[in-house]
């Protein structure tokens, strides 16, 4: 790596249970001569391979999740396809487990005193493994974990599928041990140069481990609420503390370049979320409450003032979508030509964010919804210029090799940003921790602070975290108005006072009404997890939020596709009889009561943590 020296000096072919082709291009020593792995390099490689935000996940799962939760809408409109399942991706925990198990083996070959020096590496790697285990089990329930990735050192090639309940208990116990090691072990080797997350600050790793227990507890509330609340109390009162500042957030950049694969630095270069835009409910809620995160989660539409005037000059004012026209201040001049004077309402940049309607089959109703779903006809100026009037998801928050073209009018020079930007990812932060604590406080946990205190800290932190992520990922319009091509253009940077304005709105305030307050906490969790779709999914299905009939953030209810048809887990494929794991897979499906394929089974056949949770839209229990 250019920024961090991340070189694996031990790459044993048999170590990898997924692939037997390993890239030795960056290893300075002849691989055949390497006999011993360096724990520091193994630790650094585990961070490099830590990936809960892969391409398959964003391409297949995220687009489906956003539509199931109704934070996103297909660019063709909501239809019966929302009941279709999505495939589960390959297990990702194994990508880190294989290095954790290799470190365990390497330490077993050392003298006891030498091995003890690397205890903190093992603990930090375990924290990464637990995070990925939670990620995997959210998709599909039981997963291979305790016996996985051990074949290189005498383990089985057919690891058992551990039950989710057992894993949660195991992880809570192991995280406690990780915290103990990270806070008390002495005479340790823990190099800051090999730690792009916390630069060698093991006390921050301990806070991450403690905070991660909340992620598990939140998934236990439908099955063992008493234990979940007790875990929350333990976390909130633990001497090691929790993630509570920008410096402690699990939000980082792996590298600025890689001689092995630039996907490590930039995430990838293929498009995702190209057929899903933000929902009208989501974007209107954020704009109406002046939530700055709307500018970081979604893209501005391409209807700047110059584009509006372009259509005015062509006497095509009727082709300007009505919801845009409603926010235009104009006058009619000589010859009946409209003249753009400025934006009404909230003004720039807020007036550039519009969502897609959630009405069922809206894409087939041009007379009502043509301004959104027929934009490629109405908003097409000529063969080369079509202007999208609604907001898509901000893909430069997801990967860094994207060329942005600023919306210009025919005849004007193109304005582009073609710089590749090393990608920053957000995994667990101060906002998430405090949103969980606010939830648990409302559910009855005995915590040091009240729900409002945690909640207010969480929302402010979430806005700042998204602002930081937008800045680091250099998304369009951040710190830029593109040479004032459009004199009305505004950058999207966070402005002083915006958080206070947002939180002054009733929909963002807790009032002491438990039911309403709990719904607001879950709404904020759903919004905060816009860059972590599986967490948004887990939150929506365990909470029943967005709630049907809500006066705050309502879920659309379709008679054509009832909520009992919306998937609550990913689809399974029939294993091949020749698959070495065939019997293990069949037994795991049977144990969980799962059927292969799609359909209503994806709602009724639930993963353990989802059993007894409210149906989509029912609201919290």
Give an account of the 3D structure.
With 621 residues, the protein is mostly helical. Among the domains are: 1-54 and 89-242, Serine Threonine Protein Phosphatase 5, Tetratricopeptide repeat, CATH 1.25.40; 276-408, no CATH class. Helix content is 39%, strand content 7%. It is built from 22 helices and 14 strands. It has a two-stranded antiparallel sheet. β8 (380-382) and β9 (385-386) form a beta hairpin. The longest helix is centred in the N-terminal third of the chain and has 22 residues, at 119-140. The protein is globular, with a radius of gyration of 25 Å.
Give a short summary of the structure:
With 621 residues, the protein is mainly alpha-helical. Helix content is 39%, strand content 7%. Among the domains are: 1-54 and 89-242, Serine Threonine Protein Phosphatase 5, Tetratricopeptide repeat; 276-408, no CATH class.
Radius of gyration: 25 Å
CATH class of one domain: Mainly Alpha
Strand content range? 5-15%
Global mean pLDDT:
93
Q: What summary fits the major beta sheet? A: 2 strands, antiparallel
Provide the CATH topology of one domain: Serine Threonine Protein Phosphatase 5, Tetratricopeptide repeat
Q: Low-confidence runs (pLDDT<50, min 5 residues)?
A: 1-35
What is the molecular shape?
globular
Number of helices: 22
């Amino acid at each position: 790596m250019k920024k961090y020296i991340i070189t694996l000096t031990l790459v044993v072919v048999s170590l990898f249970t997924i692939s037997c082709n390993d890239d030795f291009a960056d290893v300075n020593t002849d691989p055949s001569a390497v006999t011993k792995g360096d724990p520091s390099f193994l630790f650094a490689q585990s961070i490099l391979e830590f990936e809960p935000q892969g391409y398959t996940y964003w391409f297949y799962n995220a687009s489906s999740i956003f539509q199931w939760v109704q934070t996103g809408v297909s660019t063709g409109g909501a239809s019966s396809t929302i009941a279709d399942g999505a495939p589960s991706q390959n297990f990702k925990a194994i990508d880190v487990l294989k290095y954790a198990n290799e470190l365990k083996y390497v330490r077993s070959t050392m003298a006891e005193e030498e091995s003890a020096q690397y205890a903190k590496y093992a603990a930090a790697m375990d924290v990464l493994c637990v995070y990925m285990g939670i990620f995997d089990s959210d998709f599909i329930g039981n997963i291979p974990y305790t016996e996985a990735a051990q074949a290189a050192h005498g383990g089985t090639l057919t690891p058992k599928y551990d039950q989710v309940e057992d894993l949660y208990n195991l992880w809570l116990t192991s995280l406690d041990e990780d915290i103990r090691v990270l806070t008390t072990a002495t005479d340790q080797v823990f190099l800051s140069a090999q730690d792009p997350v916390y630069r060698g600050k093991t006390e921050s790793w301990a806070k991450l481990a403690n905070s991660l227990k909340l992620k598990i507890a939140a998934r236990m509330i439908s099955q063992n609420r008493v234990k979940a609340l007790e875990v929350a109390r333990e976390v909130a009162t633990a001497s090691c503390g929790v993630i509570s500042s920008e410096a402690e957030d699990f939000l980082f950049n792996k590298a600025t370049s890689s001689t092995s694969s630039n996907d490590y630095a930039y995430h990838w270069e293929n498009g995702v979320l190209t057929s899903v835009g933000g929902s009208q409910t989501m974007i209107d809620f954020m704009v109406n409450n002046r939530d700055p995160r709307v500018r970081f989660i979604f893209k501005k539409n391409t209807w700047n003032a110059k584009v509006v005037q372009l259509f005015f000059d062509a006497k095509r004012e009727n082709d300007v979508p009505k919801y845009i026209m409603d926010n235009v201040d104009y006058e009619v001049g000589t010859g009946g030509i409209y003249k753009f004077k400025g934006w009404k309402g909230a003004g720039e940049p807020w007036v550039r964010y519009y969502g897609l309607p959630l009405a069922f089959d809206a894409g087939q109703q041009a007379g009502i919804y043509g301004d959104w779903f027929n934009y490629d006809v109405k908003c097409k100026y000529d063969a080369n210029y079509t202007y999208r009037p609604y907001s898509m998801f901000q893909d430069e928050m997801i990967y860094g090799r994207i060329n942005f073209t600023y919306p210009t009018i025919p005849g004007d020079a193109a304005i582009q940003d073609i710089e590749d930007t090393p990608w920053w990812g957000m995994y667990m932060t101060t906002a998430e921790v405090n949103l969980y604590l606010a939830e648990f406080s409302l559910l009855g946990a005995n915590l040091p602070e009240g729900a409002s205190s945690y909640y207010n800290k969480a929302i402010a932190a979430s806005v700042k975290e998204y602002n930081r992520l937008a800045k680091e990922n250099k998304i369009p319009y951040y710190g830029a108005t593109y040479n004032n091509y459009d004199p009305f253009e505004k950058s999207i940077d966070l402005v002083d006072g915006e958080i206070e304005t947002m939180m002054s709105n009733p929909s963002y305030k807790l009032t002491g009404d438990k039911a309403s307050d709990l719904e607001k906490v879950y709404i904020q969790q759903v919004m905060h997890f816009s860059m972590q779709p599986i967490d948004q999914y887990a939150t929506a299905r365990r909470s029943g939020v967005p709630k049907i009939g809500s006066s705050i953030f309502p879920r659309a209810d379709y008679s054509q596709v009832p909520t009992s048809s919306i998937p609550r887990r990913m689809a399974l494929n029939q294993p091949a009889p020749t698959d070495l794991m065939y019997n293990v897979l069949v037994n795991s499906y049977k144990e969980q009561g799962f059927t292969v394929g799609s359909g209503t089974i994806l709602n009724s056949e639930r993963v353990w943590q989802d059993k007894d949770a409210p149906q989509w839209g029912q609201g919290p229990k």
